[in-house]
Structure formats: structure tokens, C-alpha cells
Amino acid sequence: MPPEGESPVEPPSASSPRRRRTIAVVAVVVVVVVAVVLALVLTGRGGASPSPDDTASTAQPTGGSSSGTPGEGASDEPTASTPPAAGPDTPESPPVGLDGSPTVVDGVTVRVKSLTAVDGEAVLPGEVAGPGVRAELEMVNSTGAAVDLSTVVVNLAYGSGRTPANTFSTGTSSFPASVEAGATAIGTYVFEVPADERGGLRLTVDYAVDVPVVVFEGAAA
Questions:
Q1: 20 contact partners, CB below 8 Å, separation of at least 6
Q2: 96-218: in CATH 2.60.40.1240
């Protein structure tokens, strides 16, 4: 027993160490949980799936049109392919007379239907009315498919110096863009030519850069 007049000293409670251990354990668990949650958040950000906008912006075409079924609307009929345009360095075929019918490309020929003297009419700025020559040509397609004529260029030169002739807009109607299989296309061209130079004309038909230029020589009627 304690001496008389002193309060008895209570022994330390057995629950205090247990309480401290419990608090420590809880603290460790909280730290672990926070660490796990943080790791999951960071991992989710790094491997997030792309948004629809990102997917649309990075998608690459797999060929063909972006709409419709590949080959939809395609025609079984043969179509004319566009040849490369003729140029100044295109070689020339040997000249033929105005009554000739030379071959332009396989299955396609051209001939001068008529070459006559006319009076040119000035309509556009820069044109001067005066004597001229009207050339009407025929392009005959004997192949089984349409032939592209969009690059055909017809020119005329006159005199010993082969002076290039200007073209009158009035009366000129170039060849159409193509000629169907078995059909004939017509092109009409009115050139400015002095009256005393109509006897020595040189008419050229340029089909494409890799096809020799057809050359007609003769006099206007």
C-alpha cells in the first residue's frame, strides 16, 4: 500500500501501446492506398485511348474514294485516255499533199477536207480583218474505242519563211475533245494569210508530244 496521504500511482494502461500500433498501421495503409491510386491515375493518363477526333485526324486512307463502294459507277465502255500535249520539239512526219490521208496514230487518220481562200472577220481585240484561209479537217477513228483529241493543235504557216498565221476566232471551231469508235470528228480553222501568200501553205496537225506532227503542204483554192 502507498504511504498514507499519497495517491496511488496507476500502472500504465495496456491499451496505449496497442493504440499507437493501430494508428501506425492505419497510417501505413493510407500511404499505400494513396500510392496505388496515384500510380493508377498516372498509368491511365499514359495509356489513354485516343479520342474520336484524334482517331479521325490520324486515320489513313486505304485506297480509292472516301465515299461509296470501290469501283461503284465504273463504266464497262472504253474511254479515251488523254495523251501528253504536243510541244515545239515534237518531230515531224514527211510532208504530204493536201489530198493525202496520213496516219496520226494506229487506227486514226486525218485529211484536209477543204482549204479555201476567205475574207477574215475581226471580232476580238487584236484581230485585223483581211484575207485569210479556211481549213476544214477530218479525223477518222477506225479503232474500237474512243480517241482523245483534247491536245490536238492545228497551225498554218505561209511563204518561204514559214511565217506563222494568226487565227480568226470567227469561223474557227476546233476538234472536239474526243472522237468515238468508228466515227469522224471535224475541226475548222480560219487563218490570217496575205492574198499573195496563199500559194505556199504549210498546215500542221500536232496530236501529242510523243507522236510525229502531220504536215500538209499545198495551195488554197
A1: none
A2: yes
